[in-house]
Amino acid sequence: MKKALIIVPFALLVVTIAGWFVLERATNPTADARPAPPPSSSPIDEPKPSTAIPESNGEQEELDRADVASSIADETGTGASSIPQPRWRESAAKQLDRPKQDASGARSGPVDAASSEPGPREGGKTQPGGRTGQSNRSNEPASTAETSRTTTRSVPTPIREGDSDRPNPTRDPDTDRINDPTSDTEAPTVVSIEFSPPQIQDGESTTILIAATDDLSGVKFVTGSVRSPSASAVIGFSAASDGTNERFIGTIKVPEKADAGEWHVNQIRAMDKANNVRSVSWDGSSAPPGARFRVVSANADSTPPTVESIALDREAVNAGEANVIRIAVTDDESGVNAVNGMFSSPSGRATASFQCTLDSGSGLWVGNIALPVDADCGEWVLRHLSVSDKANNRATLGADQPVIRDTKFFLSFEGSCDSEPPIVTLVQFDPTAIINTEANLIRVIVLVEDDATGVKHVSGRLIGPSGTDGQPPTISFGLKPTADARRWEGTFTMPALAAKGWWSLQKLDALDNANNRRNYSQTDRVLQGIGVTVQ
User: Fold this and answer.
1) Looking at the whole model, is its pTM more than 0.85?
2) Are 140 and 501 in contact (CB under 8 A)?
3) I need a labelling partner for 49 at 20 to 30 A (CA). Which of 87, 250, 292, 443 fits?
4) In sequence order, which residues have a C-beta less than 8 Å from that of residue 287 and are 6 or more positions away?
5) How many alpha carbons fall within 13 Å on the CB side of residue 469?
6) Is the predicted pLDDT of residue 266 greater than 60, yes or no?
7) Where are the domains of the chain?
8) pLDDT exceeds 50 at position 247
9) What was the pLDDT predicted at 180?
């Protein structure tokens, strides 16, 4: 009896404990669960190197200079019509034609010319319209699993535009990438500017000395322009390295009868070997010490030429015929040096440029306006006219100026009247993921169609992750036609130490033989998700 009295309560206690344990497991199933092991690295975190090329690439530097010089051309009026196209490397093309294995183990290849369908893109899914890849990418790294780095590069204080006490721009939130010593995200620093001699006579030259440094890849080139005291004359310059890669020297020759007084540097653009660009501009009052030189001139000319009248030889022309424009231009001191302009088509998608020469007999500036045989039919209107004198003073007139407002002629409806620009149907890069330990050659394939006259020119530009100063790097490229009229191909170089992250296709320009142009941007579906991941 005593044993029963002891056993029964003990059994009740065991049952109670067991019930509590079962209830606890039911309400909290992970109470004793062990932490899950960390996920394995994505294959894209350890990409395999792609086809590499030597870092020195004169053709790519030519494209970079042309892209950077476009803003200088806008200032000086020298004009940059189209991006020069690189010569095709047959050996590189054959290399890239071979299928590759990307970091995930998938095979990738170029577009099949017969089927006009793309080969599989690395790490992406096929998208509508023949495009492949990720469609909602921004200028950020594809992988967020990159190991945090503690090395911090010092950012020297450059000569900047405007107030030197303004706060630094907000940094990219991905500080690991910014501080990565193998990812160049910092543009060159312009340390100082000096002119030697600081005073010259009109018709003489002065040397500009620019000290510029770069924290990682090194300075590639420096370009810029100087402006006259009256702000009507601009002279561009290109500064070459003296061999140290930190001191750049250029020559600026001012014309005879140049504007007298203090000239100043109004713009400098410095690019490093990873294509980061520092662009700085000033007006006459804000230019830093040393960025000025003085011109002494007894017969200074500070006034641009004046357009007196414009006339066309014919009010209407037939397909394939040219028209002639005659312009009366006067200048008060140094004399007229150049006259050029541009007409636009009825649709506004095509242009026709002209340059004039002086007709000694009449004293007029005469230019030939040649339209393509199958150009857009209808009314062609003068949209732009630029005149400059021998002292580099320049005036630019728009279509709203009374002297050119009604300058137009009619193209008859005899030709095919092509008014539609080319249509890009597919863009593909190969490879789409690289590592930046060395320069990499990227192949570009574009399928583009034109309904009438055929494609004349295709070029584009990539934009990289934003740098520490908020100016993202860019890379420009030109393409060449192939045996298939729809297929254009070319290459560009992703430089060693390029900023890590997503380099997206920012723009693509397509021009047909009737001069109709379409500028594709990132808002166009065909460009979305197209780019290269740099790691």
Assistant:
1) no
2) yes
3) 87
4) 264, 265, 266
5) 20
6) yes
7) 187-296, 306-411
8) yes
9) 87
